[in-house]
């Protein structure tokens, strides 16, 4: 459990708590405005708590992903890939950059890295 006490994880924990409490507070505020007669606030009174639930779900997902990595489990989906409607079986390599732009070349390498495994997360990019 020590890995969840690193500065990065402590920031994530604090951020999750702040966002959740903030969204619930905004929901309460909209609820009080709605009961005072502001009809548009009824929608927001139910929307803000849903944002809080979403923040909690994201935090749980991040913790479970980290726990799976710690156990050496694959965090990738075990479902088979979808069948492609296209005829080509092998991926097509992008054409060489004609402009010689380093930023474009770096972006194309990043896209190729993502395309090689769709389950990768952008934050895992080594370059």
Radius of gyration: 22 Å
The total count of helices amounts to: 3
Sheet of most strands: none
Structural class: mainly alpha
Count the E strands. 0
What is the mean predicted local confidence, pLDDT?
85
| Helical percentage | 55-70%
| Termini gap | 29 Å
Shape: extended
Low-confidence stretches: none
Element order: H for helix, E for strand: HHH
Residues in β-strands, percent: under 5%
Describe this structure as you would to a colleague:
The chain has a domain of 69 residues. It has 3 helices and no strands. Helix 1 runs antiparallel to helix 2. The protein has 127 residues and is mostly helical. The model has no long low-confidence stretch (mean pLDDT 85). The longest helix is centred in the middle third of the chain and has 30 residues. The chain is extended, with a radius of gyration of 22 Å. This is DNA-binding transcriptional regulator of glucitol operon. It comes from Stackebrandtia albiflava. Keywords: Membrane, Transmembrane, Transmembrane helix.
Secondary-structure map:
Blueprint lengths: L6 H29 L5 H30 L31 H15 L11
What keyword list fits this structure?
127 residues, mainly alpha, membrane, transmembrane helix, DNA-binding transcriptional regulator of glucitol operon, transmembrane
Short structural description:
With 127 residues, this protein is mainly α. Helix content is 58%, strand content 0%.
